[in-house]
Amino acid sequence: MGQTGDTAPIAELLDERQHLLNVARWMLGNGRAAEDAVTETYRRWYTLTDKQRTGITEPRIWLTKSTGTICLARLSVPERPLPNPEGKGPDARTEFDPALTEEISDVLLNALNALSPTERAAFVLNDVFAMPPQTVADIVGRTPHECAELADRARRSLRTSRAHPTTPREHDKIVRAVRQACVTTDPAHLVSLLSPHATAFFDGGGKIRALTRPVHGSEQVTRVLLTLLAPRPHTTLHLNSANGRTAIVVRHNDQVAAVISFDIAGHHVTHVWAVMNPDKLRSWNRHHLPSHGHGPRGD
Predict the structure, then answer these.
(1) What is the pLDDT of residue 188?
(2) N or C: which end of the chain has fewer CB atoms below 10 A?
(3) Where does the chain cross the membrane (predicted)?
(4) DSSP letter string over the chain?
Protein backbone atom coordinates (compact mmCIF):
# COMPACT_ATOMS: atom_id res chain seq x y z
CA MET A 1 0.00 0.00 0.00
CA GLY A 2 1.95 2.95 -1.27
CA GLN A 3 -0.84 5.44 -1.98
CA THR A 4 -1.02 8.89 -0.45
CA GLY A 5 -2.66 9.07 2.95
CA ASP A 6 -5.31 6.41 3.53
CA THR A 7 -6.48 6.17 -0.09
CA ALA A 8 -6.14 2.70 -1.62
CA PRO A 9 -8.31 0.10 -3.40
CA ILE A 10 -10.69 -1.61 -0.96
CA ALA A 11 -9.30 -5.02 -1.93
CA GLU A 12 -5.81 -3.85 -0.96
CA LEU A 13 -7.05 -2.49 2.36
CA LEU A 14 -8.78 -5.79 3.15
CA ASP A 15 -5.68 -7.76 2.14
CA GLU A 16 -3.60 -5.53 4.40
CA ARG A 17 -5.87 -6.18 7.38
CA GLN A 18 -5.86 -9.93 6.74
CA HIS A 19 -2.07 -9.89 6.60
CA LEU A 20 -1.91 -8.16 9.99
CA LEU A 21 -4.40 -10.66 11.46
CA ASN A 22 -2.31 -13.56 10.13
CA VAL A 23 0.84 -12.14 11.74
CA ALA A 24 -0.95 -11.63 15.05
CA ARG A 25 -2.58 -15.07 15.03
CA TRP A 26 0.68 -16.86 14.41
CA MET A 27 2.42 -14.85 17.10
CA LEU A 28 -0.35 -15.02 19.71
CA GLY A 29 -2.16 -18.25 18.76
CA ASN A 30 -5.52 -16.72 19.63
CA GLY A 31 -8.13 -15.16 17.37
CA ARG A 32 -9.56 -12.61 19.80
CA ALA A 33 -6.13 -11.54 20.98
CA ALA A 34 -5.10 -11.11 17.35
CA GLU A 35 -8.13 -8.93 16.66
CA ASP A 36 -7.27 -6.81 19.70
CA ALA A 37 -3.66 -6.42 18.53
CA VAL A 38 -4.70 -5.34 15.04
CA THR A 39 -7.27 -2.91 16.47
CA GLU A 40 -4.49 -1.40 18.60
CA THR A 41 -2.29 -1.19 15.50
CA TYR A 42 -4.86 0.86 13.61
CA ARG A 43 -5.49 2.99 16.71
CA ARG A 44 -1.80 3.88 16.72
CA TRP A 45 -1.96 4.65 13.01
CA TYR A 46 -4.74 7.15 13.53
CA THR A 47 -3.02 8.81 16.47
CA LEU A 48 -0.36 9.95 13.98
CA THR A 49 -0.78 13.38 12.48
CA ASP A 50 -1.77 13.70 8.83
CA LYS A 51 1.76 14.86 8.08
CA GLN A 52 3.27 11.83 9.83
CA ARG A 53 1.01 9.40 7.97
CA THR A 54 1.73 11.04 4.62
CA GLY A 55 5.44 10.73 5.34
CA ILE A 56 5.19 6.94 5.68
CA THR A 57 5.94 5.65 2.17
CA GLU A 58 5.06 2.00 2.96
CA PRO A 59 2.09 1.95 5.39
CA ARG A 60 1.88 -1.86 5.25
CA ILE A 61 5.43 -2.19 6.55
CA TRP A 62 4.76 0.35 9.30
CA LEU A 63 1.57 -1.45 10.29
CA THR A 64 3.28 -4.85 10.27
CA LYS A 65 6.07 -3.58 12.51
CA SER A 66 3.50 -2.10 14.88
CA THR A 67 1.50 -5.33 15.01
CA GLY A 68 4.64 -7.38 15.64
CA THR A 69 5.77 -5.03 18.39
CA ILE A 70 2.34 -5.15 20.07
CA CYS A 71 2.24 -8.95 19.89
CA LEU A 72 5.77 -9.30 21.22
CA ALA A 73 4.88 -7.07 24.18
CA ARG A 74 1.83 -9.24 24.92
CA LEU A 75 3.83 -12.45 24.59
CA SER A 76 6.26 -11.06 27.16
CA VAL A 77 3.57 -10.47 29.80
CA PRO A 78 4.12 -12.96 32.65
CA GLU A 79 1.51 -15.68 33.08
CA ARG A 80 -0.27 -14.81 29.85
CA PRO A 81 -3.15 -17.22 29.09
CA LEU A 82 -2.09 -19.92 26.66
CA PRO A 83 -4.31 -21.50 23.99
CA ASN A 84 -6.14 -24.62 25.15
CA PRO A 85 -6.57 -27.18 22.34
CA GLU A 86 -9.49 -28.83 24.11
CA GLY A 87 -11.29 -25.58 24.83
CA LYS A 88 -11.40 -26.34 28.55
CA GLY A 89 -11.30 -23.88 31.40
CA PRO A 90 -13.39 -20.89 32.37
CA ASP A 91 -11.68 -18.44 30.02
CA ALA A 92 -13.19 -18.73 26.54
CA ARG A 93 -10.32 -16.65 25.19
CA THR A 94 -8.01 -19.63 25.54
CA GLU A 95 -9.70 -21.55 22.73
CA PHE A 96 -7.84 -21.95 19.44
CA ASP A 97 -9.11 -19.77 16.64
CA PRO A 98 -10.64 -21.95 13.85
CA ALA A 99 -9.16 -19.78 11.10
CA LEU A 100 -5.68 -20.32 12.51
CA THR A 101 -6.00 -24.09 12.92
CA GLU A 102 -6.67 -24.36 9.19
CA GLU A 103 -3.06 -23.23 8.68
CA ILE A 104 -1.29 -24.74 11.69
CA SER A 105 -1.91 -27.81 13.82
CA ASP A 106 -2.79 -27.59 17.49
CA VAL A 107 0.37 -29.56 18.29
CA LEU A 108 2.57 -27.03 16.51
CA LEU A 109 0.76 -24.19 18.27
CA ASN A 110 1.54 -25.83 21.60
CA ALA A 111 5.17 -26.18 20.52
CA LEU A 112 5.27 -22.48 19.59
CA ASN A 113 3.95 -21.64 23.04
CA ALA A 114 6.96 -23.40 24.54
CA LEU A 115 9.30 -20.91 22.87
CA SER A 116 10.42 -17.70 24.49
CA PRO A 117 8.62 -14.58 23.19
CA THR A 118 11.65 -13.44 21.20
CA GLU A 119 12.24 -16.90 19.72
CA ARG A 120 8.61 -17.20 18.69
CA ALA A 121 8.60 -13.72 17.17
CA ALA A 122 11.83 -14.30 15.26
CA PHE A 123 10.65 -17.69 13.96
CA VAL A 124 7.18 -16.52 12.91
CA LEU A 125 8.36 -13.31 11.26
CA ASN A 126 11.34 -14.96 9.54
CA ASP A 127 10.07 -18.44 8.59
CA VAL A 128 6.34 -17.95 8.27
CA PHE A 129 6.17 -14.46 6.78
CA ALA A 130 9.68 -14.17 5.29
CA MET A 131 10.04 -10.58 6.45
CA PRO A 132 13.31 -8.77 5.69
CA PRO A 133 15.97 -9.28 8.40
CA GLN A 134 16.01 -5.60 9.32
CA THR A 135 12.23 -5.55 9.74
CA VAL A 136 12.41 -8.58 12.05
CA ALA A 137 15.21 -6.89 13.97
CA ASP A 138 13.19 -3.68 14.36
CA ILE A 139 10.25 -5.62 15.80
CA VAL A 140 12.22 -7.92 18.10
CA GLY A 141 14.62 -5.23 19.22
CA ARG A 142 17.76 -7.19 18.38
CA THR A 143 20.32 -7.07 15.59
CA PRO A 144 19.58 -9.02 12.39
CA HIS A 145 22.32 -11.49 13.35
CA GLU A 146 20.82 -12.02 16.81
CA CYS A 147 17.37 -12.52 15.26
CA ALA A 148 18.79 -15.14 12.89
CA GLU A 149 20.24 -16.97 15.89
CA LEU A 150 16.89 -16.75 17.71
CA ALA A 151 15.09 -18.19 14.69
CA ASP A 152 17.63 -21.02 14.43
CA ARG A 153 17.21 -21.79 18.13
CA ALA A 154 13.43 -21.80 17.70
CA ARG A 155 13.68 -24.25 14.81
CA ARG A 156 15.81 -26.60 16.90
CA SER A 157 13.36 -26.36 19.79
CA LEU A 158 10.39 -27.04 17.52
CA ARG A 159 12.08 -30.06 16.01
CA THR A 160 12.89 -31.45 19.44
CA SER A 161 9.38 -30.89 20.77
CA ARG A 162 7.59 -32.18 17.67
CA ALA A 163 9.62 -35.22 16.73
CA HIS A 164 8.94 -38.48 18.56
CA PRO A 165 11.95 -40.70 19.13
CA THR A 166 12.87 -42.43 15.88
CA THR A 167 15.94 -44.59 15.52
CA PRO A 168 18.56 -43.30 13.09
CA ARG A 169 18.10 -46.45 11.04
CA GLU A 170 14.33 -45.95 10.72
CA HIS A 171 14.82 -42.26 9.97
CA ASP A 172 17.36 -43.10 7.26
CA LYS A 173 15.04 -45.70 5.74
CA ILE A 174 12.14 -43.28 5.42
CA VAL A 175 14.25 -40.42 4.04
CA ARG A 176 15.69 -42.78 1.43
CA ALA A 177 12.14 -43.72 0.46
CA VAL A 178 11.19 -40.03 0.21
CA ARG A 179 14.19 -39.39 -2.02
CA GLN A 180 13.28 -42.34 -4.24
CA ALA A 181 9.70 -41.10 -4.58
CA CYS A 182 11.04 -37.70 -5.64
CA VAL A 183 13.54 -39.22 -8.09
CA THR A 184 10.84 -41.29 -9.77
CA THR A 185 8.21 -38.54 -9.45
CA ASP A 186 5.82 -40.90 -7.67
CA PRO A 187 3.17 -38.80 -5.88
CA ALA A 188 1.23 -41.79 -4.51
CA HIS A 189 4.34 -43.22 -2.86
CA LEU A 190 5.38 -39.85 -1.47
CA VAL A 191 1.93 -39.16 0.01
CA SER A 192 2.05 -42.54 1.74
CA LEU A 193 5.30 -41.55 3.47
CA LEU A 194 3.91 -38.31 4.88
CA SER A 195 1.68 -37.73 7.88
CA PRO A 196 -1.76 -36.43 6.82
CA HIS A 197 -0.93 -33.30 8.84
CA ALA A 198 2.63 -32.88 7.53
CA THR A 199 3.98 -29.33 7.41
CA ALA A 200 6.78 -28.01 5.21
CA PHE A 201 8.82 -24.87 5.87
CA PHE A 202 10.97 -23.19 3.22
CA ASP A 203 13.86 -20.88 4.15
CA GLY A 204 15.03 -18.81 1.20
CA GLY A 205 16.31 -15.98 3.34
CA GLY A 206 14.83 -13.48 0.92
CA LYS A 207 17.65 -14.34 -1.51
CA ILE A 208 15.87 -16.92 -3.62
CA ARG A 209 12.21 -17.09 -4.67
CA ALA A 210 11.05 -19.65 -2.12
CA LEU A 211 7.59 -20.11 -0.64
CA THR A 212 6.99 -17.57 2.09
CA ARG A 213 4.34 -19.53 4.00
CA PRO A 214 4.38 -23.07 5.39
CA VAL A 215 2.57 -25.76 3.39
CA HIS A 216 0.21 -28.10 5.25
CA GLY A 217 -1.20 -31.54 4.49
CA SER A 218 0.36 -34.60 2.84
CA GLU A 219 -1.04 -33.92 -0.63
CA GLN A 220 -0.05 -30.25 -0.63
CA VAL A 221 3.46 -31.01 0.68
CA THR A 222 3.82 -33.75 -1.94
CA ARG A 223 2.91 -31.37 -4.76
CA VAL A 224 5.37 -28.75 -3.54
CA LEU A 225 8.24 -31.22 -3.06
CA LEU A 226 7.75 -32.82 -6.47
CA THR A 227 7.64 -29.38 -8.08
CA LEU A 228 10.69 -28.17 -6.19
CA LEU A 229 12.67 -31.33 -6.95
CA ALA A 230 11.43 -31.88 -10.51
CA PRO A 231 14.07 -33.52 -12.74
CA ARG A 232 16.28 -30.96 -14.45
CA PRO A 233 19.66 -31.23 -16.18
CA HIS A 234 22.65 -31.01 -13.83
CA THR A 235 20.42 -31.35 -10.73
CA THR A 236 20.94 -34.34 -8.42
CA LEU A 237 19.53 -35.52 -5.11
CA HIS A 238 21.96 -36.98 -2.59
CA LEU A 239 21.72 -38.32 0.94
CA ASN A 240 23.97 -36.79 3.60
CA SER A 241 23.92 -36.30 7.35
CA ALA A 242 22.53 -32.99 8.62
CA ASN A 243 22.29 -32.39 12.37
CA GLY A 244 23.02 -36.06 12.94
CA ARG A 245 20.19 -37.39 10.75
CA THR A 246 19.88 -38.32 7.09
CA ALA A 247 18.79 -35.44 4.87
CA ILE A 248 18.36 -34.85 1.16
CA VAL A 249 21.02 -32.59 -0.30
CA VAL A 250 20.16 -31.06 -3.66
CA ARG A 251 23.06 -30.17 -5.92
CA HIS A 252 22.87 -28.11 -9.08
CA ASN A 253 26.02 -27.94 -11.21
CA ASP A 254 27.76 -29.59 -8.25
CA GLN A 255 26.86 -26.74 -5.88
CA VAL A 256 24.59 -27.45 -2.91
CA ALA A 257 21.33 -25.63 -3.67
CA ALA A 258 19.18 -26.99 -0.84
CA VAL A 259 19.35 -29.14 2.27
CA ILE A 260 16.05 -30.78 3.15
CA SER A 261 15.66 -32.26 6.64
CA PHE A 262 12.79 -34.29 8.03
CA ASP A 263 11.05 -34.88 11.35
CA ILE A 264 9.58 -38.36 11.56
CA ALA A 265 7.05 -39.87 13.96
CA GLY A 266 5.10 -43.10 13.73
CA HIS A 267 6.89 -44.08 10.49
CA HIS A 268 5.68 -40.94 8.72
CA VAL A 269 7.24 -37.57 7.95
CA THR A 270 5.66 -34.88 10.13
CA HIS A 271 7.83 -31.90 9.13
CA VAL A 272 9.93 -30.93 6.16
CA TRP A 273 12.56 -28.19 6.61
CA ALA A 274 13.98 -26.97 3.27
CA VAL A 275 16.94 -24.61 3.58
CA MET A 276 17.65 -22.80 0.30
CA ASN A 277 19.16 -19.63 1.75
CA PRO A 278 22.56 -19.31 0.00
CA ASP A 279 24.10 -17.79 3.12
CA LYS A 280 23.21 -20.86 5.19
CA LEU A 281 24.56 -23.21 2.51
CA ARG A 282 28.05 -21.69 2.37
CA SER A 283 29.51 -24.27 4.75
CA TRP A 284 28.08 -27.05 2.56
CA ASN A 285 29.80 -25.61 -0.49
CA ARG A 286 33.22 -25.09 1.07
CA HIS A 287 34.19 -28.65 0.38
CA HIS A 288 32.90 -31.53 -1.72
CA LEU A 289 30.73 -33.71 0.50
CA PRO A 290 30.55 -37.49 0.04
CA SER A 291 27.09 -38.54 -1.08
CA HIS A 292 25.04 -41.66 -0.53
CA GLY A 293 22.03 -43.13 -2.25
CA HIS A 294 21.32 -44.80 -5.55
CA GLY A 295 19.71 -43.92 -8.85
CA PRO A 296 20.41 -41.54 -11.72
CA ARG A 297 19.86 -38.51 -9.54
CA GLY A 298 21.94 -39.65 -6.59
CA ASP A 299 25.46 -40.54 -7.72
Answers:
(1) 96
(2) C
(3) none
(4) --SSTT---HHHHHHHHHHHHHHHHHHH--HHHHHHHHHHHHHHHHHS-HHHHHT-S-HHHHHHHHHHHHHHHHHTSTTPPPPBTT--SS-GGGBPPHHHHTTS-HHHHHHHHTS-HHHHHHHIIIIIS---HHHHHHHHTS-HHHHHHHHHHHHHHHHHHHPPP--HHHHHHHHHHHHHHHHTT-HHHHHHHEEEEEEEEEE-TTSS---SS-EESHHHHHHHHHHHT---TTEEEEEEEETTEEEEEEEETTEEEEEEEEEEETTEEEEEEEE--GGGGHHHHSSPPP-B--STTT-
